[in-house]
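TODO from last week: model DUF2207 domain-containing protein.
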Amino acid sequence: MPRADFNLTLSIRCDWAMRLRLLGVSLCALGFLALTSVQAGATGQDGRSTAADPVVTNYDSEIRVERDGLLKVSETWKLSNVTGTFTRFVVTRDHLQDDVDHVQKIEDLQVKAGGQDKKSELTTAGDISSIAVADISGDTQLDFTYTVRGAVAETLNGTEVRFSPLTGLALTVQDANIVYSTPEVTHVSCFAGAIDSNTPCTLAQIAETAGPTFKQQGLPPGNTVRMTVGFPKGEIGANAIVEYRKTFKRAFSTDTAQLITALAVLLLGAVALFLLYRLRGRDQVDPRRVVPASLFSLGQDTRIDFTPPADLRPGEVGTLIDERIDPVDVTATIIDLAVRGHITITELEHETEFARPDWELRRVANAPSEQLQRYENVLVRAIFGDSDSVLVSELGRQVRANLGEVQDALYDGVVKRGWFTERPDRTRSLWATIGIGVTVLGVILTVVLALLSTWGLLGLAITAVGVGLLIVGRHMPAKAPAAGRVLGQVAAIRGELLEMDVSELPSDQHAELCSRALPYAVVLGGSERWISALVATDSDEDEDEGFHWYRGPRGWHLQYLPDSLRNLTTNLTGALFTR
């Protein structure tokens, strides 16, 4: 390869690498030197060298520091045996603590060779700005003039110029001379070598008749000369260009303004949520109030009648208490319909000991003439459709598809009774939607503020308020005053179910009354003791048929009732609510 093409290729490759990082620049320079040394060391047949190494024989620079902090730079580069593109570098970004960068900008660049303008390309990549001059051949003198903005930084005792014009050059600089033209100077320093080297330059002094003078002899390829010149307060204006690195710590700054604002938003949000709950979500009743009530009353001829107050049904009781329709409310309603004579539940025989149990639900043709609540009618239609019987294992897609109508009817029923001013599910849905909206807005603001500023904490505070709204929204359905007396009655009934001596019930009505109370105990608690009371009606070891509402398979005994009902509840819940 001809020497000119060889040098041009190496220079272009170095130029690309040098724009990536200063370390890459240094390595490229060392590689360039090693390869060109091989070329320069080649010998002809007479044993003499055929070429010399490319070098910078002299670098002379005069830097005038203006009062406003601008640097007016004039440079002379004397190049020897340099062919192709010549590229020099200047450190234009200095990383400081607290994610702060001081940035310098090179402006008004002009390059001349032999008094004629030369085309040059100024680019900045990372911490380094590069100036590339093409079409260099042999021994050349280049004259650079440019302005540097942002090189003067404020210090405790004044200001300082921090400038590194010789950085990562791919060639050896044999002799470098830099002279500053400045007003009064307080101190100077100069270091040569790696970018963070503490090796002093050959000369750094404050002359009596001239400005600060710096010299460096024999600067190897890839090395840096960095200078500092200090000034008294008010002598030179600071013009450092400050930029901030995008870091997690800075994006979520805890500086006074950001922290106080975020805490204020959190505090105001918490107060607003509290007031919102007090005004809209707090029940207008006293849940501790107990109103005398009983599921049983003395009828004619000393018989005991089952008379729940206000004709309360188990599904309605469960919905009133926790303001939502749970699986237990629906399963308790099915058992209640069976106990009242509208459905019969028949446990099928097990094919094997380990076979999954199943039950047949059958609609009773001659059911009592009592009027069912709307949600009960909807539930019966959802279970049976056009059939008179169905297996629990087959209660599948059709029932689940119609379960929403059952819930709608039950919610509408508690509103119609005046226990709520609006449907609890719609109230929760409304506030959940608002909470999700505020949360999403907070997340978006967090990302935007973190990327564009230091106010990420403000976005997090808004997000926290949105999450708080989601939590408070679950408790926003408020019971109306009309629910107060009913809740008091429910409290009394719960106490009765948990504490009543079941043995006091008339023996001839024992099974009937315990069966009627069982659905309420499923919802309010104490179901085990009422099931046990039903089991206690078994007075022999013979197999039992069961009750009018629940019948067991062949060989079934009342002692199996607790397991049978437990399995029934589990399978009904799975059939109705599992998707």
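Done. The CA atoms of residues 211 and 375 lie 97 Å apart.
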